[in-house]
Amino acid sequence: DSSMNHSVITVIGKDRVGIVYDVSKILAENRLNILNISQQLMGEFFTMIILVDTAQCTKSRQEMLDLFAVEGKQLALDIRMQDEELFNAMHRI
Length: 93
Hints:
Blueprint: E1 6-14, H1 19-29, E2 33-42, E3 45-53, H2 61-75, E4 77-83, H3 84-90
Antiparallel strand pairs: 1-3, 1-4, 2-3
């Protein structure tokens, strides 16, 4: 099942120039392939939901979670990653 390698990344922060670039750069450096991306401006907040394929990523899931926490703090963004199955299960109606 190819969705085993899929994760959902959510990004929230105050809108500014370069958010998409900053986040894409982290994903590219860690070989996370963007499959789909949705972004929206809600008032002064920028929100982005990214579906990624993690098959090529050399880091463990926990290493990526830690990296997103550190990078997010430096970039003043909230960056979180969840498995697609977990995300689907949590949001099933």
